[in-house]
Specification:
Layout lengths: L13 E6 L4 H7 L14 E6 L5
Antiparallel strand pairs: 1-2
Amino acid sequence: MRICADAVPDDGLFDVTVVGDCGRATLLTVFPQVYKGRYLSHPKVSVHRARRPRA
């Protein structure tokens, strides 16, 4: 699975993928796309990068 599809292991950045509130039908539709990293353009998905994670 490509959860953080655009992450670069040696760039020094911490990548986090967040999936917003969605229904079961949306989740079942989008989930197969995770294997190929094609879900990042979905409106309920956001990707965040940081040098140092914080709460």
